Amino acid sequence: MTKFVLNLLAPILLVLFAETVSAQAFTAIYDFSGVATASGRTDPGAVPIASGVTFGSFIASATVGANSSAGGRFSFPGWSLGAITGSDVFTGGINTAQYYEVTLTPQLNIELSLQRVIFTLQRSGTGIRQYSVRSSIDGYAANLPASINPANVNLQVVAGNVFQVSDATTAAENGSRLTLSGTTALQDLATPVTFRFYGWNAEGTGGTFSLDNVSFSGSTTTVMGSPVITLSTAAINFPPANINTSSADSTFTVQGENLTEQITISTTAPFSISDAANGSYSTSLVIPAADVAAPKTVYLKFTPSAATPYNGNVHVVSGITYKDITATGDGIDPANLVFNFNNCSSGGGPGLGFISYSVIGAQRWACSNFGNSGTRGVDVNGFSGGVALDNEDWLISPALTIGSLNLPIFSFYSRGEFSGPSLQLLVSTDYDGSSNPNTATWTDLQANFPPLTNVWTFTDGINLTAYKSFPKIYIGFKYTSAGELGAARWTLDDVTVNDR
């Protein structure tokens, strides 16, 4: 009898061991830095990245305004009415056809559990007074558990898990929180889940409902026993490389568990891969499953053929199990000394061989839709979540060769607004082109930056003759912000070295 019971238990034990899971926590933030007043109803910026989950873009329903009312946040007019100025008596109700939505998708062999959602709320003077969040798990039937944390005198939660914002405020208000850890239906998800943010009881048809810094926190678990591919990184960004030359190798590791088929790794030019340093590079590589039982190093090279930004992908697959790595890099023409940023991607890197390096803080230089003369440029702003944050962010040129110029003169356009420190313009002859700039020696070029009046200003006459004898130099724009100093927004465009 004992033997019979043990035999019955054996398959159960096997199933339990097969379902043992390993969890990985994540926090992913939508900062809407790519949103502009003409960018449409879909956030054009880069989505967050976390292991095991794919984040979709925020989308506004077709029943609200066609474009965001402000840049750098998700803010649309056209919400249902039901409030009057100075009163907390409301006559309207939720309109389920008006919302912002975003979808989170667990990847293959992954279960997704959501713990909380935190976001910043802002309204215009005639904007919405009440808002809530629902999910696709119950067909958007019920509001998710709402609270205010940290406490905020301008925000409260009323009956039915409805957020309410004070009529007196039009500022960015922090504290809106959804606690999801107790919602069983949002734990161990193997299928996509969509969240909808509803706003209503606006005071006027042009009133807005604005979201910013929407943060999703949770965890992903991989079901052991299923085929698993583990990569050491999800993204590789190469330093700028001269056209028709190869970069130094970048590496990543791949490891497989419970694989029954070989690993195939593929990419497309100008990226190429090899299983050995200084080995033979191609766009496809096959590795036996046994060779990735322990982490195996794979080498990736970047060989641009044109002076343009490249966005590629490294696809790693075994059977139906796969993972991807994004690969990016700028091809640069070493003879180019004119940089207008017109082809950069909104919310993305500056391009043209310039690098954005954040020494302190999460903010960084990025492509902007609001460059000089209506074109694109690059900007940075250390103000986020209603406060000035500590930041040290560098925008650094590609290596510049100026030895053949008679009289090399550096110039640029800039504008600043709000309150905060000015920029610094510096030059280095020993920077390596990719590392923390504070590891190099920099000399202040004493550039005159304009006052913080949000007016484009041309700065000219910066003489680089003293640096002609060096084989290459780097020019850096250094941005700083802090709680006690403030945080200005600075925008740059049309950076040039002329031969006078």
Tally of separate helices = 1
The outline comes out as: flat
Global Rg? 26 Å
Supply the helix-strand structural class.
Answer: mainly beta
Please tally the β strands and state the result.
37
What is the helix fraction of residues, given as a range?
A: under 10%
What does the average pLDDT come to?
Answer: 92
Task: Give the DSSP E fraction (strand runs of 2 or more residues).
Answer: 35-45%
The rounded distance between the terminal residues' Cα atoms is 99 Å
Could you give the topology of this structure?
Elements: H1 2-18, E1 21-30, E2 49-50, E3 53-55, E4 59-60, E5 74-77, E6 100-106, E7 110-123, E8 130-135, E9 146-148, E10 155-158, E11 162-165, E12 173-179, E13 193-200, E14 208-223, E15 228-231, E16 235-237, E17 241-242, E18 250-257, E19 263-266, E20 271-274, E21 284-287, E22 296-302, E23 309-318, E24 321-332, E25 338-339, E26 355-360, E27 366-368, E28 377-381, E29 383-384, E30 387-388, E31 391-396, E32 408-417, E33 424-428, E34 443-444, E35 457-463, E36 474-481, E37 489-499
Parallel strand pairs: 16-24, 17-24
Antiparallel strand pairs: 1-14, 2-3, 3-6, 4-6, 5-14, 6-13, 7-12, 7-14, 8-11, 8-13, 9-12, 10-11, 15-18, 18-22, 19-21, 19-23, 20-22, 23-24, 25-37, 26-31, 27-28, 28-37, 29-30, 31-36, 32-35, 32-37, 33-34, 33-36
